[in-house]
Amino acid sequence: MRQNIVAGNWKMNKTLQEGVKLATELNDILASKKANCGVVVGVPATHITEVVKAVDTEKIGVAAQNCADHESGAYTGEISASMVKSTGAAYVILGHSERREYYGETNETLKVKTDLALANGLAPIFCIGEVLEEREANKQNEVVKSQIEEALFHLSAEDFAKIVLAYEPVWAIGTGKVASPEQAQEIHAYIRSVVADKFGAEVADNTTILYGGSCKPSNAKELFAKPDVDGGLIGGASLKAEDFAGIIDAF
Ligand SMILES: O=C(CO)COP(=O)(O)O
Predict the structure, then answer these.
(1) CA distance 93 to 82
(2) Average pLDDT, stretch 216-236?
(3) What does it catalyze (predicted)?
(4) Catalytically annotated residues
(5) Residue 236 is assigned to a ligand binding site
(6) CATH number (domain holding residue 201)
(7) Which run of H or of E encompasses 7?
(8) Structural domains of the chain, count
(9) Atom number of ligand 1 nearest to Cα 238
């Protein structure tokens, strides 16, 4: 069954102490009222162990924001999928547009990262999405299709079924310029059709596709009401427990 999920991406924000405080506040909110969707927080690698301790991981899954494209060895500064798994994280965000843009991640490296994440029992939250010029040239479908094709089409249907997709139009990230619910629905339905063509209708129907980009408590309900929008990947609004809880409340 397709799961609705609201996932936070804290990006490079919060000290360890601030992060534990935020996670604790969110945990307290969700202890008193049950969420009608899965909840995930994507935290800096330095915070994962403590956030895992601070929350009820049955209610709040913890995600890393990246993992290495090598298993282990002489890769100074990198963190492997097995290391991430050993912290208690259940998810890893892969292919965020900021990593593609600033750290040179390609579909080819993301293919390797996805394999390593899956081999180590982590569920990838795999990000795709076009930049503004591509949207203006009406190339968004082409772009997301090639991102999925090049990084994920080698997977078995069984492995693909473990992946959460996140459609994040780069022009909407951190800009306050949210995609309209209609724009989101249109491309989410297209993404689902790409998945169906390759992995079959059942896998496609069960795939969770999140929307990300300036999603807030004030616009989440309208976006999540669309049949192919199964929740959100939230940046700025995940940094305050009440705002993030407000988005969870949209379900
Ligand atoms: O990049 C995002 C989540 O991964 C979205 O960020 P904002 O919600 O801050 O626009």
Answers:
(1) 15
(2) 98
(3) D-glyceraldehyde 3-phosphate = dihydroxyacetone phosphate
(4) 96, 168
(5) yes
(6) 3.20.20.70
(7) strand 5-9
(8) 1
(9) 8
Substitution site in 43, 164, 214, 240 for ligand 1 pocket (most atoms within 8 Å of beta carbon): 214
Is the CB of residue 129 below 6 angstroms from any atom belonging to ligand 1?
A: no
Task: Please indicate whether residue 214, judged by its CB atom, sits closer than 6 Å to ligand 1.
Answer: yes
Q: Is 19 annotated as a binding residue?
A: no
pLDDT tens for each residue of 176-197:
999 999 999 999 999 999 999 9
Instruction: Spell out the SS3 assignment of 75-106.
Output: CCCCCCHHHHHHCCCCEEEECCHHHHHHCCCC
What is the rounded CA–CA span in Å between residue 192 and residue 199? 10
Q: How far is the CA of 73 from the centre of ligand 1 (A)?
A: 32
Contacts of 46 by beta carbon, 8 Å cutoff, 6+ apart: 16
pTM, 2 dp: 0.98
* Residue span of the structural domain in which 160 resides: 5-248
Q: Is 167 helix (H, G, I), strand (E, B) or coil?
A: strand
- Could you give the CA distance from residue 229 to residue 59 in angstroms, rounded to a whole number? 21
Q: What angle do CA 142, 143, 145 make, to 5 degrees?
A: 65
